[in-house]
């Protein structure tokens, strides 16, 4: 921290630790936030408020609703990368509706393992809950390791495991010593296993679109055809709609627009990440009209930043 404060380090790479008040920069010129949807609003804005104000680059495969709203209403400029990385293939995504379909999913895993591939099974909880009907990683591990996959090499990974054990499991996955890894969403980011071709997301309705998209992206990172299976626990209309959206969309930006439609833009001047904000005139679906209004607002502000002219008097009062 002393070296950062004195400017002896030109490039600092870190986690949320860099957002602490006690971390001071001598002359912060640029902030790059990767996987920005994982950060809270206040966390993301903390570094950008340093003086002098640094340049800010935020990157995400799936922008959360508030971020997308800011690209329309705020001062963020948006760039999109539509192409898949070289040699990558689209992931086939399917919704599993019944026990018979789930049996087919397990058969697909076994088929892929027979080809030398690997699979992930993701559960929202570590241990089962008495009050929430959702899949738990420990329960699924015991069931499959002692049942359908007793002849396969099955591993378990979750956040309460000691760091050494977590590292050991991931090393075994990379070394292809584990055929099927049952895990919590701890594998959502930072896991790159090109040999993995199947991911099964249990209790899929418990996850948001951004998280589902990230979990799906744990496979399809190599040259092999890959598959994502969504297994819901509860049958809710909204949950089913969200899962169908993921089945029909592979583009992260399209998913963020659908997430925006379902969850709302949030308080784009504050800290609320989603939920409907009542616009005085337009609706959030009027994207083209809102974009035109944004461009017009830029012109007005550039000519009269404080809205002091007689022409903008009523606008100033309204705002």
From TrEMBL:
Residues 1-81 form the Helicase ATP-binding domain. It comes from marine metagenome. The keyword Manganese does not apply. Residues 101-261 form the Helicase C-terminal domain. Keywords: ATP-binding, DNA damage, DNA repair, DNA-binding, Helicase, Hydrolase, Nucleotide-binding. One of its GO terms (biological process) is DNA repair. One of its GO terms (molecular function) is ATP binding. InterPro entries: DEAD/DEAH_box_helicase_dom (IPR011545), Helicase_ATP-bd (IPR014001), Helicase_C-like (IPR001650), P-loop_NTPase (IPR027417), RecG/Mfd (IPR047112), RecG_dom3_C (IPR045562). SUPFAM superfamilies: P-loop containing nucleoside triphosphate hydrolases. SMART domains: HELICc. This is Helicase C-terminal domain-containing protein.
